[in-house]
DNA sequence: GACCCGTGGCC
DNA sequence: TGGCCAAGGGT
């Protein structure tokens, strides 16, 4: 890791901010510095690219123009606003945060990073981003862009996958950032990180700060940032049961914790829960599903295969392989079943995860309005 | 500190 | 295809 002297720091600040003034992106959440706007955009942008976020952000502001609107929203509407973005706990935490603001802060945002970080769903990065952009606090906002940009500029070789590495970057960036335009500085780093200083195909030759980029000058830019690899997604097998009740579908709302919390799917049974023998036949599996429905839900049904091709869906650390069955319910008492019958028109109002869209697509059902 | 939590894009 | 990446936070 290298250290810059005061003259280099000043030179870098001026170069970066001049570039940002000319080439910074015009984004919907940059029209003002309203903390609500900054906050919503920052949460949406976690692990999500700008082009994906833009339409979600516009619709979110249409549906929930203020913190009070968000605090009062029904959860179904909330999750629908987030449908397709992923990491659904983000939006449930946002509503908790909105309610905290109204109940405990008289609706006034804390203006420091430490104060903001007390709120649900706001961690060190988002606290720094809101504090610097909305409240002009000279604090770093260390995200993936900052890791990538500063690891290359300064040749910082600490493993960015390790939590303690954040402190190294926070200290390095704090020395470099200006006190007069901290929000613009942090946003300029993000724009740099998503344009000239991308992970795989950086275009440093045209970067406004290439003369400060020590890794590039040394010819080993792609060695930064140093990051240990993540484990492969673990395979998990399911059986999905597509059961009609008249023209309705039998669907369940997933538990409020864990994967796809509170979203709606058809019944998904972990194959492991069917307790099949190693030499079980296809017929054995169908019988096991019928027995499972009777045991767990007190429901009688008959099942048959829908499609020999399983639906596959890969999450960050699970790869689901889902065999599809159609079911005909013999009984319709849903007292022991954690769900209900859902009409086709109601389907468009419920929050549905992507994997369920894939399952419905095999049955010829489109969820587009 | 390790693990959990979605989706889309790219090669 | 599989692996990696993209404005992280909670437990």
Question: What are the defining features of this structure?
Answer:
metal-binding; Endonuclease III, domain 1; seven-stranded mixed sheet; 369 residues; Nucleoside Triphosphate Pyrophosphohydrolase; 2 domains; DNA_glycosylase; 4Fe-4S; alpha+beta; DNA-binding; oxidized purine DNA binding; purine-specific mismatch base pair DNA N-glycosylase activity
The CATH architecture term of the largest domain is: Orthogonal Bundle
Could you say which overall geometry the principal axes of the C-alpha atoms support? elongated
DSSP, total strands = 7
Report the major sheet.
Answer: 7 strands, mixed
Strand content: 5-15%
> CATH homologous superfamily of the largest domain?
Hypothetical protein, domain 2
DSSP helix count?
15
CATH class of the largest domain: Mainly Alpha
CATH topology of the largest domain: Endonuclease III, domain 1
How many whole angstroms does the radius of gyration measure? 25 Å
Write the element-wise H/E pattern from the N-terminal end onward.
HHHHHHHHHHHHEEEEHEEEHH
EC number: 3.2.2.31
Enzyme class: hydrolase
Cofactor: [4Fe-4S] cluster
Catalytic activity: Hydrolyzes free adenine bases from 7,8-dihydro-8-oxoguanine:adenine mismatched double-stranded DNA, leaving an apurinic site
Structure description:
Helix 9 (144-154) packs across helix 11. This protein has helices spanning 6-23, 35-44, 50-63, 67-72, 75-82, 89-104, 113-116, 124-135, 144-154, 165-176, 182-193, 214-217, 282-297, 344-347, 354-362, and strands at 234-245, 248-253, 264-265, 268-270, 301-314, 318-329, 339-342. The chain folds into two domains: 6-223, Hypothetical protein, domain 2 (Endonuclease III, domain 1), CATH 1.10.340; 234-362, Alpha-Beta Complex (Nucleoside Triphosphate Pyrophosphohydrolase). The protein has 369 residues and is of the alpha+beta class. A hairpin with a 2-residue loop joins strand 1 and strand 2. Strands 1, 2, 3, 4, 5, 6 and 7 form a seven-stranded mixed sheet that branches. The structure holds a DNA duplex (11 and 11 nucleotides). It comes from Lactiplantibacillus garii. Belongs to the Nth/MutY family. Residues 44-195 form the HhH-GPD domain.
């Amino acid at each position: 890791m290298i250290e810059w002297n005061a003259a280099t720091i000043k030179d870098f600040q001026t170069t970066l901010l001049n570039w940002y003034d000319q080439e910074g992106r015009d984004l919907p959440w940059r029209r003002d510095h309203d903390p609500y706007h900054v906050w919503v955009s920052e949460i949406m942008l976690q692990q999500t690219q700008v082009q994906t976020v833009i339409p979600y952000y516009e619709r979110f502001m249409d549906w929930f123009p203020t913190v009070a609107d968000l605090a009062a929203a029904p959860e179904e509407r909330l999750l629908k606003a987030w449908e397709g973005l992923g990491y659904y706990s983000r939006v449930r935490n946002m509503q908790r945060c909105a309610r905290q603001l109204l109940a405990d802060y008289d609706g006034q945002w804390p203006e420091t990073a430490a104060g903001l970080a007390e709120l649900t769903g706001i961690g060190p990065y988002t606290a720094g981003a809101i504090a610097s952009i909305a409240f002009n606090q000279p604090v770093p906002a260390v995200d993936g862009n900052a890791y990538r940009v500063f690891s290359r500029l300064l040749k910082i070789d600490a493993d960015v996958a390790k939590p303690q590495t954040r402190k190294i970057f926070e200290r390095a960036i704090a020395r470099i950032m200006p006190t007069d335009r901290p929000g613009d500085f942090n946003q300029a780093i993000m724009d740099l990180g998503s344009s000239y200083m991308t992970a795989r195909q950086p275009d440093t030759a045209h970067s406004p700060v290439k003369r400060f980029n020590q890794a590039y000058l040394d010819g080993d830019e792609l060695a930064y940032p140093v990051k240990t690899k993540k484990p492969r997604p673990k395979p998990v097998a399911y059986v999905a049961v597509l059961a009609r009740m008249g023209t309705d579908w039998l669907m369940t709302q997933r538990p409020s914790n864990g994967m796809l919390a509170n979203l709606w799917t058809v019944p998904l049974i972990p194959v492991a829960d069917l307790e099949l023998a190693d030499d079980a036949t296809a017929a054995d599996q169908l019988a096991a599903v019928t027995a499972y429905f009777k045991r767990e839900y007190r429901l009688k049904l008959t099942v048959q295969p829908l499609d020999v091709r399983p639906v596959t869906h890969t999450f960050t650390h699970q790869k689901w392989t889902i065999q599809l069955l159609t079911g005909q319910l013999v009984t319709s008492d849903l007292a022991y079943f954690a769900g209900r019958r859902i009409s086709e028109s109601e389907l468009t109002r419920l929050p549905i995860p992507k994997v369920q869209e894939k399952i419905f697509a095999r049955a010829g059902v489109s969820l587009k309005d």
